Amino acid sequence: MVRNVAGVVADLDPEDVHLLSGVEQGMRFSEWVDRERLPDFADMPAEEVDYRLDRCERRELVERRTIQYEGFTLTDRGYDVLALHTFAERDTVEGVGAPLGVGKESDVLEVSSYRPLALKFHREGYTEFRQVDRERDYTSDHNHVSWLYTARKAAEREYEVLRALYPDVSVPQPIDQNRHAVVMAKLDGVELAQATLEPDQAAGVLDLILREAAVTYEAGYVHADLSEYNVFVAEEGVTVFDWPQAVPTDHDNAHELLVRDVSNAASYFTRKFPGEVDDVDAERVARAIEDGTFESVRTA
């Protein structure tokens, strides 16, 4: 369930946020920050630290554990508060609305600003960061990372890729990024997996998706996780989202990842619309995308 922390942010004192930032600083060195070191990290007296820790713990922003020492760590809720507080200070976000979606690696909320936007909190690594660390390119060169680092790097990577692709590729317009969160344009349409398409539309929609993959490749990237769950379909066309796992086209595995993207997209349509969409030679289509000659799965 997506948790809206806007009310928590409004209820906090500046000193509470300062304490949370101190815990965040301490987590650069250890998952559990020694209580005795928090006055230095937060730059406040020990008595004030105790008071602020109590307030933050009651709001489930930090968690306490006694190991060889009394340690504190940020919860995902606490990290959300820090990011949202920064967006509010920047005037990026004025208010937070209803959940838009929840996945195994992200939560998305509607936010108000000069126009309706979407706020995406990355959750990569929060419960199983060691597995993510091994699999994701942006953490593969680190022997040990905290979940904060993993989630923040995912947000930074997604924001970087969106900025590189928009508006040439049909992706959400990137607005702002802080810590593990990205603010982007709110998408119109329906997720492909939930969309109602007529059989005679299937091949055309597949071509639209693969053309976006081709323009993405021309811009220097491969999505690397393309599926029916990260494509929105609307009357105006398709929009591809979820880009933290994207790789540059000079990546050692770029070709294999492109073939997988093509295969994943095509197999959804061939399963759902048998007879309307012929089996696709993913290798051949990927080569056409790489050569800049792709126009349609029927001509590739």
In short:
The chain is an alpha+beta fold. It is built from 10 helices and 13 strands.
Number of domain units: 3
* CATH architecture descriptor of the largest domain: Orthogonal Bundle
* Order of neighbouring strands in the sheet with most strands: 4-5-6-8-7
As for the CATH topology of the largest domain, it is Transferase(Phosphotransferase), domain 1
State the end-to-end CA separation: 43 Å
What's the main sheet like? 5 strands, antiparallel
Whole-angstrom Rg: 22 Å
Number of helices: 10
Poorly predicted spans: 129-135, 137-144
What pattern of helices and strands is seen along the backbone?
Answer: HHEHHEEHEEEHHEEEHEEEEHH
Which superfamily, in CATH terms, is the homologous superfamily of the largest domain? Transferase(Phosphotransferase) domain 1
Number of strands: 13
Would you tell me the structural class of the helices and strands?
alpha+beta
Helix content: 40-55%
Strand content: 15-25%
Overall geometry: elongated
Oligomer: single chain
- Mean pLDDT comes to 92
Question: In CATH's first tier, which class of the largest domain applies?
Answer: Mainly Alpha
Task: Tell me what the structure shows.
The structure is a single chain. The protein is an alpha+beta fold. The protein has three domains: 6-77, Winged helix-like DNA-binding domain superfamily/Winged helix DNA-binding domain (Arc Repressor Mutant, subunit A, Orthogonal Bundle); 92-185, Phosphorylase Kinase, domain 1 (2-Layer Sandwich); 190-291, Orthogonal Bundle (Transferase(Phosphotransferase), domain 1), CATH 1.10.510.10. The protein has helices spanning 6-11, 14-26, 38-42, 46-58, 76-89, 129-135, 147-165, 202-218, 254-272, 282-291, and strands spanning 33-34, 62-66, 70-74, 95-102, 106-112, 117-122, 174-178, 181-185, 190-191, 221-222, 231-234, 237-240, 247-248. A five-stranded antiparallel sheet has the order 4-5-6-8-7, with helices on both faces. A three-stranded antiparallel sheet has the order 1-3-2. Helix 2 crosses helix 5 (76-89), helix 8 (202-218) runs antiparallel to helix 9 (254-272) and helix 9 (254-272) packs across helix 10 (282-291). 44% of the residues are buried.
